Amino acid sequence: MIEKERHVLIILPHPDDEAFGISGSIAAYRKMGVPVTYACLTLGEMGRNIGNPPVATRETLPEIRKMELIKSCEAMGLEDLRMLGFRDKTLEFEDDEDMVQLVEELIEETNPSLVISFYPGYSVHPDHEATARAVVRAIRRMEVEERPKLYAVAFANNTEAELGTPDIIHDVEATIENKLNSLRAHLSQTVWMMKETEAKLAQNDPEIKKWLRYERFFSYKWDQDFE
User: Fold this and answer.
1) Dihedral angle computed from the Cα positions of residues 209, 8, 185 and 133, in that order, rounded to the nearest 10 degrees
2) Domain coordinates of the chain in residue numbers?
3) Pairing assessment for the beta strands 36-42 and 8-12 based on DSSP bridges
4) Distance between terminal CA atoms of the chain?
5) CB neighbour list of residue 181: distance below 8 Å, 6 or more residues apart
6) Residue 103: which of 122, 78, 82, 79 has the closest Cα?
7) Which of 26, 21, 24 lies closest to 8, judged by CA?
């Protein structure tokens, strides 16, 4: 069951980060009438994929990915998209305090009951890690009784061994088509993956159906020190 929230704030570094493990939940919240704000820190302009056949060049990729992100948000019914303009693959070099203050300002403005981001230490990419650290640090500074919930996405190889299994599982069966359209929107990055996914769906592959239907999150463990 997906709980109805006051406001959901999503903070992720790249276009398409939302599509893989969160888009079904976003669409579900929007269908409930829950306001959702998505702060996307970069345009993913350093992404290695440019489509197959190519749909972009290195010069045009930022604008292509911007349009793909907008299309993904439309697929999810998400209207409040913030593109914050940081450069892809440089977030780890941004001033830590500036990043924390950015998150604090977003929380103060939107007053979310739930924040969704990555789990620090378990999200693989340096941009993911920098984003996760800023989110955790900003929420940790709040009075305990005023903190929003933090649902974190984690997929490092050691995740289950160290964190256990996800404690939040959303059944997004009702919004699978929204999720598929979100993934399809990011054509420059997902073309090969979506060809394989569509083929498996046509074959009624149970594993791909399970992957699409269930979105998994970890409630952040506030007694854990990731520093």
Assistant:
1) -90
2) 8-219
3) parallel
4) 33
5) 72, 75
6) 82
7) 26
C-alpha of 142 from chain center: 23
**Which residue has tokens 């604008």?**
63
Closest to 25 in 3D by CA, of 219, 221, 155, 179: 179
Dist CA 220 CA 201 (whole Å): 33
| Amino acid, res. 147 | R
According to the model, what pLDDT value does residue 46 have?
A: 80
DSSP strand pairing (114-118 vs 149-153): parallel
Query: pLDDT tens-digit profile of 127-144?
Result: 999 999 999 999 999 999
CATH 3.40.1550.20 fits 8-219, yes or no: no
Task: Give the confidence band of 176 by pLDDT, cuts at 50, 70, 90.
Answer: very high
